[in-house]
Specification:
The complex is a heterodimer of chains A (about 500) and B (about 325). Chain A contains 22 helices and two strands. Chain A is an all-alpha fold and about 500 residues long. Chain A is globular and about 70 Å long. Classes of the chains: A mainly alpha (about 500), B alpha/beta (about 325). Chains A and B meet through strand 1, helix 15 and helix 20 of A and helix 2, helix 3, helix 4, strand 7 and helix 7 of B.
Chain lengths: ~500, ~325
């Protein structure tokens, strides 16, 4: 087995003292960066890139990959404990993680998140190790129509998860899509919806500004209303016994984790999609397959495991097209790709031959960084539980400051901080009126990609929508479109059925 | 405590020693530059993270940091909105601030003209030009196209359904596409499909989703020679990394020459000393071994230029781009 030989060679490189230290340093920093709302892995990698100039490329990429990995673990922490997604990839984790924390089960949720991340990450590293070149060939087959089909599939899996009222879900989704159109027209490059030239709108509405606003700031407004009567919001406990019992419970989540990991890896591998849609899709699929779908959104452990295994799997997956094709699978790998160029490396099939030390050293280090990350994340749990026990009068101002920093850092524009507070108020009102927030966030995340791939496909086909259903020319797109259509129709069927039954009931 | 106080007789001596020291110190620093950054330098990039301009900016950051050429760090900030409009408007708002610089693309000329922005190159301070990126016409190797004659035949055979991938609309790639169509009588026969970045464009050609591209060499390299084949170069001379590829000039189309400039600009009205410091900094960078290695590996033309000649270069490029846009009917006089 040539690959096994290469893998051991890579592990040998990764286990050298300097590289081990780089990985550990990166993982710890990554967990911290991921836990800081708004920082996230993209900014973390971009900010820390200059530090790597002093070491050889192999050590540098090990460091950056470790940050990326650690941030995936860290992102779950603030999602669960504060209802503020630490990164876009961790938004879906708030859906069940935060309700669990409010029920005093923050520790369970955090441990579940860490273990699910570990499994998701490891499974996809194995796939990465053994199938990188053929998978790269497969990823090349994804052009605009195929990408659009994947995005539509993400919406389809998410349809019907909004809540009680489909109309409110549709309104929330449309608002999200509308916000995604602000900024620069993707095809023509002209500014649009900038309200007469407000410079803050030129770069569009950043997704994190909305997410931190409606979840983080909105949560503070909500707590203000409840008053600070409750001294301790959580009765969280964590000991060896609790951890063991959580781990036992995790066997229940095994099928969810397996599905989520595979899905995450494949979606992550596709250029442009990345870990965020993967985590949303994994969450919705877990709910569809669950025996207890009514518990989702109220604190189901599967609801934490699903997005967490998928986002870690996707982060490994997105490194595949970066190394083999020179195409970033996610915003973070886009920065890492930039780093590759800075080091004078050319991605592509030849990289695996000419820079074997780099590629296999990185692969080996992924196994090690992943193991380190799960240990660091679990050891960090008591610290965050302790933080949660602080009185709200201290915690609330800290959360607000953290939110403001989070709103500022992605674009470094004060305008976005003000916008974030407005979204906070909007989020509060929406929750009062029972509008689901998740579809709005998802629509803003995917809106740009949806519009771009759709319009590119239509230009390619000279305006013929048949391009999406062309089994001969674009078989992958056609099959995915069919699956989406079925998924869209499925939730409507019982609705029509119920409607008929109730009509029959009243007329009788 | 008394002993620490200088005696009256020591004062003149101390003053003399001090003034001597100052004179010496000033002499050495003035030889370099009188101005030095006192705050971190904002390094504004008029494109998103991971794109071509971003990579170049981060490479410059690396070279400057490693050689310790700046007492303050260069901090890259991406302002990608409105095809560079956001970045240029930002520089306009920083008038006179010497701690902000901008890495430019050719949208530096096209965006202000097309968008009627209150800012263009004349409102900024030209600092340095470091390189000129080159363009090649690429096809998928599976197409079997070997030369320009094959290409023209293949385009015509597709009866208006030929697709050309490129980055953004009305930007570099589309200008080049339009020049090609005009030169070879292919008007209306090529559909231009805009993508988000050069890497994605190349991937879509390698995967067979578009028929041709005009990628920079560095963008095509990951898929070369396996999946992408260069047909001709838009340079006056052959590109050293692609010796076998003819130039359009050799093929009888000398007007098909196009470059992407990689330059540094500062806000308008910055102190002369500050400009001198930056010019010196980028002069060192442009002549460094690292920059020479990078440009030769990525098949860019290293093109160091500053001062008045740079101002003239910008003025010429501005006229050239306006003409190109007018030729496409996108800009009226």
């Amino acid at each position: 087995m040539e690959i096994l030989g290469n893998l051991f060679y890579g592990l040998g490189i990764a286990l050298s003292p300097q590289n081990l230290l780089m990985a550990l340093f990166g993982v710890v920093l990554g967990v911290a960066i991921g836990a800081m709302p708004g920082l996230g892995s993209v900014n973390g990698v971009a900010i820390l890139l200059p530090i790597t100039f002093a070491v050889p490329p192999t050590s540098a990429i090990i460091f950056l990959a470790a940050i990326y990995y650690g941030a995936m673990y860290g992102g779950a922490i603030s999602s669960i404990t504060l209802n503020i997604p630490g990164a876009s990839t961790a938004v879906a984790t708030t859906f069940d993680g935060y309700p669990l924390a409010r029920r005093g089960k923050a520790a369970d949720a955090l441990v579940t998140a860490a273990v699910a991340s570990f499994i998701g990450g490891t499974l996809s590293i194995v796939l990465f190790t053994f199938f990188a070149p053929p998978l790269a060939e497969f990823a090349l087959r994804f052009g605009p129509p195929e990408e659009f089909a994947v995005v539509l599939l993400a919406y389809a899996t998410f349809a019907g998860l909004g809540g009680e009222s489909p109309l409110k879900t549709i309104i929330a989704t449309m608002l999200g899509l509308l916000m995604s159109t602000v900024g620069t027209d993707i095809v023509s490059g002209s500014p649009r919806l900038i309200f007469g030239g407000i410079t803050g709108f030129y770069h569009g509405i950043n997704f994190l500004v909305l997410a931190i606003g409606i979840y983080g700031v909105g949560e503070i407004f909500y707590t203000l209303e409840e008053g600070f009567k409750t001294k301790e919001r959580y009765q969280a406990k964590l000991g060896v016994q609790e951890t063991i019992s959580t781990l036992k419970n995790l066997t229940k989540c095994a099928p969810t984790i397996a599905r989520g990991s595979l899905l995450g890896f494949f979606v992550g591998m596709l250029p442009a999609a990345g870990a965020t849609p993967a985590s949303f899709m994994s969450y919705s699929i877990a709910k569809r397959f669950a025996k207890n779908p009514e518990e989702f959104g109220k604190g189901a452990l599967e609801g934490v495991a699903a997005p967490e295994c998928a986002n870690n799997a996707a982060s490994t997956g997105s490194m595949l097209p970066m190394l083999t094709l020179g195409i970033p699978g996610s915003p973070t790998t886009a920065v890492m790709l930039g780093a590759l160029f800075v080091w004078g490396l050319v991605p592509g099939p030849r990289l695996f031959v000419e820079n074997a030390e780099f590629v296999w050293g990185l692969t080996g280090s992924l196994y090690i960084a992943n193991t380190m990350a799960v240990i660091v994340a679990i050891f960090a749990v008591p610290i965050f539980i302790w933080m949660l026990r602080m009185p709200m009068t201290i915690l609330a101002p800290i959360i607000l400051v953290v939110c403001a920093v989070g709103g500022f850092s992605p674009t470094q524009d004060m305008f976005d901080v003000y916008l974030m507070f407005i979204f906070g108020a909007v989020g509060y009102i929406f929750r009062k009126l029972d509008y689901p927030l998740a579809p709005m966030v998802l629509a803003l995340v995917l809106g740009g990609l949806t519009e771009r791939t759709f319009r590119q496909s239509m230009i390619m086909s000279h305006g013929d929508p048949g391009i999406f259903f062309d089994f001969a020319g674009h078989p992958i797109a056609a099959v995915l479109m069919m699956v989406s259509v079925v998924l869209f129709v499925l939730p409507i069927v019982p609705m029509i059925f119920r409607f008929r039954v109730s009509r029959a009931g009243t007329s009788a | 405590m008394k002993s620490l106080k200088p005696s009256k007789r020591a004062i003149p001596f101390l003053t003399l020693a001090l003034s001597l020291l100052i004179v010496v110190a000033l002499g050495t620093t003035q030889a370099l530059a009188a101005w030095k950054p006192t705050r971190p330098i904002e390094f504004v990039i008029m494109a998103g993270k991971g794109g071509g301009a971003d990579r170049i900016a981060r490479l410059m950051q690396k070279i400057v940091t490693q050689n310790k050429w700046s007492p303050q760090p260069l901090v890259p900030i991406n302002k990608k909105g409105g095809s560079g409009a956001e970045a240029m408007l930002y520089l306009l708002s920083k008038k006179g601030n010497p701690h902000v610089i901008l890495v430019t693309l050719n949208s530096f000329f096209t965006t202000p003209a097309l968008r009627k922005l209150p800012v263009n190159y004349t409102k900024l301070t030209p600092v340095y030009r470091l390189a000129m990126d080159t363009f090649l016409l690429w096809v998928n190797t599976k197409s079997g196209i070997k030369n320009m004659d094959d290409f023209v035949k293949a385009v015509k055979a597709k009866k208006g359904k030929w697709t050309m991938g490129g980055t953004g609309k009305m930007q570099e790639d589309q200008l080049v596409t339009n020049m090609l169509m005009q030169a070879y009588g292919l008007k209306g026969m090529i559909t231009y499909v805009p993508f988000r970045g050069g890497g994605t464009v190349a991937k879509n050609l390698a995967g067979g989703h578009v028929d041709s591209t005009v990628n920079n060499p560095s963008e095509g390299l990951p898929h070369y020679p396996g999946k992408m084949k260069p047909i001709a170069a838009l340079t006056p001379e052959r590109i050293p990394a692609f010796k076998e590829v003819p130039t359009f000039k050799e093929l009888g189309q000398p007007q098909l020459v196009y470059f992407m400039q990689r330059s540094i600009n500062a806000p308008g009205g910055i102190p002369k000393d500050a400009l001198a410091w930056y010019t010196d900094l980028f002069n060192k960078l442009c002549n460094s071994k690292e920059w020479k290695d990078y440009t030769s590996k990525k098949a860019l033309n290293r093109a160091c230029l500053s001062g008045a000649p740079l101002g003239k270069f910008f003025a010429d490029e501005d006229v050239k781009h306006k003409k190109l846009l007018m030729g496409m009917g996108l800009l009226k006089n």
